[in-house]
Amino acid sequence: MFVADDSVIGELADVADTLDPAVEQIAVGDGVVYWQVEKGETIGSIFSKKIGASRFKAVTTNRNLRTLRKLV
Q1: Fewer CB atoms near the end CB (10 Å): N or C, the chain?
Q2: What are phi and psi for residue 49, nearest 5 degrees?
Q3: How far apart are CA 33 and CA 10, in angstroms?
Q4: What 3-state DSSP class applies to 22?
Q5: Any residues with CB less than 8 A from the CB of 24 and at least 6 apart, and which?
Q6: Rounded alpha-carbon distances, angstroms, from residue 12 to 7, 39, 66, 70, 71
Q7: 9, 33 in Cβ contact below 8 A?
């Protein structure tokens, strides 16, 4: 997930302790939050619910690995 606001990265990273590592994991990078989620669990996952908040929509965007490979 690409994030245009550094304060949002911190807020999103705060949810890391509540995630089930068997289902999903996140890691913070420079302007990004890396998110790995079990196939089929994306919509109902804790992190998905967090990033779905309307206040994040203007400063975040998600791209999967297939899309990133096409861009590179």
Answers
A1: C
A2: -65, -35
A3: 10
A4: coil
A5: 35, 36, 37, 38, 41, 45, 46, 47
A6: 9, 21, 23, 26, 25
A7: yes
Residues forming beta bridges with residue 25, ordered by sequence position = 36
Nearest to 63 by CA among 23, 29, 32: 32
Cα angle: 71, vertex 61, 56; to 5 degrees: 170
Question: Which one, of 59, 37, 60, lies nearest residue 48 by Cα?
Answer: 37
CB atoms within 10 A of CB 33: 21
**62: nearest Cα among 10, 43, 20, 17:** 43
**Span 3-17, pLDDT tens digits:** 999 999 999 999 999
